[in-house]
Design goal:
By secondary structure, the protein is an alpha/beta fold. The chain contains 19 helices and 33 strands. The strands form nine sheets. Strands 12-11-8-6-7-14-15-26 form an eight-stranded mixed beta sheet, with helices on both faces. It has a seven-stranded mixed beta sheet with strand order 5-4-17-16-18-19-20, with helices on both faces. The longest helix is centred in the N-terminal third of the chain and has 17 residues. The radius of gyration is 24 Å and the shape is globular. It binds ligand 6R9. Ligand 6R9 binds next to α10, β20, β27 and β28. Pfam families: ACAS_N, AMP-binding, AMP-binding_C.
Length: about 650
């Protein structure tokens, strides 16, 4: 059942939610969801308060929350704090990549002025309500400002992670028929430039990818090309825009954003979130899970290119009026103490990061941590992948000096916000377990045939009832939304994760059960990497699997067969790894590339991935039944190939 750790003395004083509160609120959220969510919806300032609360069905799939409510989420994240006299409170504390460079702080009043400036610049470029705008930015305040500006004028943002390649960017621009791009000249990460505008140019040079306008923020002064008529410098176009811009009234179910995420098949899906339910969900989860109190400093080290950045850098914290750090850099530059130095410098109270970062820093020992003052920390959080108990303990004992509770928050791009976690004032923690369902969440474990499993057991994790932050569709392909999430187990949302429930009703996520691998907390479809590989002229066939990796959680293992006449060589291996990197982005770079004369196939020609996974894991004893293989000899040659690398 795992160890049980009770938060230390003082750690749970004065929290928003005790165990008795949790039990009462959770019970109410199940027995009377309308009353519960009507109460929570008051965290939002509505132009028209909703009278309808939950209105959803999983068969057929049609999800609506707060349907007749009207609001603007940017108003809730920015304007309302200024209007209520808190305009001088700090909203964003920008910490640049280079610690010697001066950062900057934006108050809520300054943030409002910046958002208006960006919103009016977008309008000046011809952007209108309902348009899709692609945002490809470094981790600078303008990234969040661009998202808020879109929300303000009712356009749908699609943020693409700055580490994605021009090809990946092009695919995401054309899939949602985005006519506008917001980017920076370049970004900086770990002392190296990231050529964002050059990547945009490369993406837009591809056939069929065309936009009306590109808005370029000058961040580093890089030497870049500007296409006349299409590209606009932000500082120029914004110089003479009006200083006012009304918030567009949005219906609760109007789309807010699209975010592309990898699935088990085909190209990435544009997960669609709408306005009202997402606002209520991010506001409520941020309040309870991070137990935020006015005046505290919050820091989520994610990138705005992932859902964590959307929900817990932009919308959740800002709707709650929080003060937070936006960090451009990486954990190991200029040295392995960088995270802890930032925590000391800005007196961070709540820190939210990924297990992969914790594991990488743990390798460097305690000294880089102990060098910096972490006495401001009150609460630690993790997200993105299962955290191994050893890393959990290091985070708790070394980083948090045993004093700060940890919230291990399980959720997904599709869930919009945190779904399973302990609450700091309510629950004991178990290293490696995310904990308990958040309000309104009904997890269910099922076997492969959909049979419901009760009690302490292992199974496939489904959610049986909708919650306000749930994704509503896949952009432009509702059928794919239904197929992906609601058809495996009819009438239930299937998460794609495996999970164990223990006798204390704690949930332990065991990882993906589909063909999605989780590399450093980033989702990668094996099919995406395979299609990048087979696009190479020398490659005949490819099969990609995940395998356990000390730092990244999972690594990418690629089996590749070459076209007739091509020779296996170290140069070719390097070339193919580089090829995947260029096609998708650095996060997709294969860890192992195994050239093999053949892949193990059934007689019907299906690649037996189960065997490939075992070989990648160096686990040859339990290959299971190989009798259905067309050519069992392939397995021996794969094993000797694995051992030689
Ligand atoms: C927020 C985010 C979602 C997948 C999810 C699961 C894994 C996320 C986790 C976790 C164990 C946690 N995951 N948080 N696994 N414990 N606390 O990461 O969204 O990028 O869509 O990934 O990440 O496998 O299904 P996303």
């Amino acid at each position: 059942m795992g160890d049980r750790i009770t938060p230390g003395p003082g750690a749970t004083d004065n929290t928003h939610c005790s165990l008795a509160d949790y039990d009462r609120l959770y019970a109410q959220s199940l027995s009377d969801p309308d009353a519960f969510w009507r109460d929570q919806s008051r965290r939002i300032e509505w132009e028209v308060a909703p009278s309808a609360i939950a209105n959803w069905s999983y068969d057929p799939v049609d999800i609506r929350w707060f349907e007749d409510g009207v609001l603007n989420i940017c108003h809730n994240a920015v304007d309302r704090h200024v209007a209520s006299g808190r305009g001088d409170d700090v909203a964003l504390i920008f910490e640049p990549d280079d610690p010697d460079e001066e950062g900057r702080k934006l108050s809520y009043a300054e943030l409002l002025a910046e958002v208006i400036r960006m919103a009016n610049s977008l309008k000046a470029m011809g952007v209108k309500k309902g348009d899709r705008v692609t945002i490809y930015m470094p981790m600078i305040p303008e990234g969040a400002i661009a998202m808020l500006a879109c929300a303000r004028i009712g356009t749908i943002h699609s943020v693409v992670f700055g580490g994605f390649s021009p090809d990946a960017l092009a695919g995401r621009i054309s899939d949602c028929e985005s006519r506008f791009v917001i980017c920076a000249d370049a970004g900086r990460r770990g002392g190296k430039p990231v050529p964002l505008k050059a990547n945009v140019d490369a993406a837009l040079s591809k056939d069929g990818v065309e936009v009306d306008a590109v808005l370029v923020v000058n961040h580093t002064g890089a030497n870049i090309a500007m296409t006349t008529g299409r590209d606009h410098w932000y500082h120029e176009i914004s110089a003479d825009v009006p200083a006012e811009c009304l918030c567009e009234p949005m219906k609760a179910e109007d789309p807010l954003f699209i975010l592309y995420t990898s699935g088990s098949t085909g190209k990435p899906k544009g997960v669609l979130h709408t306005t009202g339910g997402y606002a209520v969900w991010t506001a409520t989860t941020f309040h309870y899970v991070f137990d935020y109190k006015p005046g505290e400093i919050f820091w989520c080290s994610a990138d705005i290119g992932w859902v964590t950045g959307h929900s817990y850098i932009v919308y959740g914290p800002l709707i709650n009026g929080a003060s937070q750090v936006i960090f451009e850099g990486v954990p190991n530059y200029p040295d392995h103490g960088r995270f802890w130095q930032v925590i000391a410098k800005h007196r961070v109270n709540v820190f939210y990061t990924a297990p992969t970062a914790i594991r990488a820093l743990m390798r460097e020992g305690e000294d880089p941590v102990k060098k910096h003052d972490r006495s401001s920390l009150r609460l630690l959080g993790t997200v993105g992948e299962p955290i191994n108990p050893e890393a959990w303990r290091w985070y708790h004992e070394v980083v948090g000096d045993g004093a700060s509770p940890i919230v291990d928050t399980w959720w997904q791009t599709e869930t919009g916000g945190i779904m399973i976690t302990t609450l700091p004032g309510a629950h004991d923690m178990k290293p490696g377990s995310a904990g308990k369902p958040f309000f309104g969440i009904r997890p269910q474990l099922v076997d492969n045939d959909g049979g419901v499993l009760e009690g302490a057991t292992d199974g496939n994790l489904c959610i049986t009832h909708s919650w306000p932050g749930q994704a509503r569709s896949v952009y432009g392909d509702h059928e794919r939304f239904i197929q992906t999430y609601f058809s495996t187990y009819k009438g239930k949302y299937f998460t794609g994760d495996g999970c164990r429930r223990d006798a204390d009703d704690y949930y332990w996520i065991t990882g993906r059960v589909d063909d999605v691998i989780n590399v450093s907390g980033h989702r990668m479809g094996t099919a995406e990497v395979e299609s990048a590989l087979v696009a190479h002229p020398k490659v005949a066939e490819a099969a990609v699997v995940g395998y356990p990796h000390d730092i990244k959680g999972q690594g990418i293992y690629c089996y590749v067969t070459l076209n007739a006449g091509e020779q296996d060589s170290a140069e070719l291996v390097a070339e193919l790894r580089g090829h995947v990197r260029t096609e998708i982005g650095p996060i997709a770079t294969p860890d192992h590339l195994h050239l093999t004369p053949a892949l193990p196939k059934t007689r019907s020609g299906k690649i037996m991935r189960r065997i490939l996974r075992k070989i990648a894991e160096n686990d040859y004893a339990s290959l299971g039944d190989t009798s259905t293989l067309a050519d069992p000899g392939v397995v021996d040659s794969l094993i000797s190939g694995r051992l030689n690398r």
